[in-house]
Amino acid sequence: MSALEQTQFDKDGLIPVIAQDFETGEILMFAWMNKESLALTIEKQQAVYYSRSRKKLWFKGEESGHTQLIKEIYTDCDNDVILLKVEQVGGIACHTGRKSCFFQKLDAREWISVAKVIKDPKDIYG
Amino acid sequence: MSALEQTQFDKDGLIPVIAQDFETGEILMFAWMNKESLALTIEKQQAVYYSRSRKKLWFKGEESGHTQLIKEIYTDCDNDVILLKVEQVGGIACHTGRKSCFFQKLDAREWISVAKVIKDPKDIYG
After folding, report:
1. Distance from B125 to chain A by nearest Cα, in Å?
2. Residue B126, pLDDT above cutoff 80
3. Which sequence spans correspond to the domains of chain B?
4. What is the DSSP secondary-structure string of A59-75?
5. CA of B58 to nearest chain A CA: how many angstroms apart?
6. Distance CA A110, CA A98 (A)
7. Chain B CB within 8 Å of residue A20 CB
8. Are A86 and A71 spatial neighbours (Cβ–Cβ below 8 Å)?
């Protein structure tokens, strides 16, 4: 059976996806894929997610240029989560202009922003 | 507003959680929390998930002894995903006896197991 056939999508046809920097191990973002986006990701060797809010394929970086080039793809013990090891083009994964979406750290029961904005989103998205 | 109040749970009252090895950056597992389990995780400084299959709190390591000691907690730009940086007690996060749940790598369109079993699950769970 092929990898795509073995992969378990949830009742909405989606699977959670973690994107991790291939070199540093930093977790860049979390998103979702449907079967079509996973197939496209494998085919193009570039991350293609499924946007739950826009209800359509999301070619990561199509506006920003911040594409994610696939280095390795993993799944977990239940075949129901995907891990992408990627090269993050432009060094920015987050729509806030930060490298990683996980820039808020728990400190004394509050979320504190601990990563700097590399590029103003206005300059990324025009 | 406190971190717990700012955290966004989905329509089922759950939030996705990624557990990452604090020292190596290796992604250990993916699971879910509800508000109570996140509060307990912060209070006990030890990972407490919510098991969607068993529909109850899941004190990670309660059977296996493979608890996860919290080093840092992050959330993402939308406050709707949690990242735990943990010390994995026993060096085994996966119920298959491997360090990480993400031990299957895509190779020529098939999932190939690439990590060894550290301890036989029969010896972990008795």
Report:
1. 17
2. no
3. 13-119
4. ETTTTTS--EEEEEEEE
5. 17
6. 20
7. yes
8. yes
The CATH fold assigned to A3-94 is Ubiquitin-like (UB roll) (3.10.20)
Note whether B3 contacts A106, CB cutoff 8 Å: yes
**Which of A30, A53, A116 to mutate against chain B (most B CBs within 10 Å)?**
A30
- H-assigned helices in A7-119: 35-44
Give A66-114 pLDDT, tens digit per residue: 999 999 999 999 999 999 999 999 999 999 999 999 999 999 999 999 9
Q: Are strands A48-51 and A27-34 parallel, antiparallel or unpaired?
A: unpaired
CATH assignment, B13-119: 3.10.20.810
Nearest CA in chain A to B106: A73
Which stretches within chain A are classed as H helix?
3-6, 35-44, 121-125
User: CA B63 → CA A11, A34, B101, B123, B124, distances in Å?
Assistant: 29, 34, 17, 11, 8
d(CA A17, CA A30): 6
- Note the Cα A78 to chain centre separation in Å: 20
Closest CB to B74: pick one of A74, A95, A104.
A104
Asked if this assembly's ipTM is beyond 0.95, the reply is yes
pTM above 0.95, yes or no: yes
pLDDT band at A126 (very low <50, low <70, confident <90, very high): confident
Q: Do B77 and A96 touch (CB under 8 A)?
A: yes
CB contact under 8 A, B102 and A83: yes
